[in-house]
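Hey L., structure's done. Input below.
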Amino acid sequence: MYKALFLSLTMFALSCSGTKQAFDPQSSKKDYLSFGNGGGFSGQVKKYYLLRDGSLWVSAAGGNEKVGSLSKSVCSQFFKNFVTLGLDKMSLNEPGNRYYFLGQRIKNTDMTLKWGKEPLADKNVETLYNILMNSVKDLEVKK
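Output:
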């Protein structure tokens, strides 16, 4: 009886130690870019997180799932573009029924740009958003 209990506990401990932790934006100290869309008839929100190491996560019903990884050089360019295009200094909070968002967390400071109500005057926001979404599509196709 004790052998069976010991064996069961050992197997449980081994199975738990082999699991990899998912990314949690609420508790993580890592920098990331966040982007996605929401609203519409269903009100559903789809949110992606791109970390500096290139890993790309999607927020799903049961938690966050890894979509895949981008090269570190491409990922680094996304982070640089966010600053170079001045998006880190911009203020934009004009969501519509269907809306889009793009943001960053750097050194535990969050900022998010939301749009959808009116066409954007500064197309840089939408351009970076579209390039990020195309990267997601490319990773999903490779699966």
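The first strand starts at residue 32 and ends at 39. The two ends are 45 Å apart (CA to CA).

-- N.
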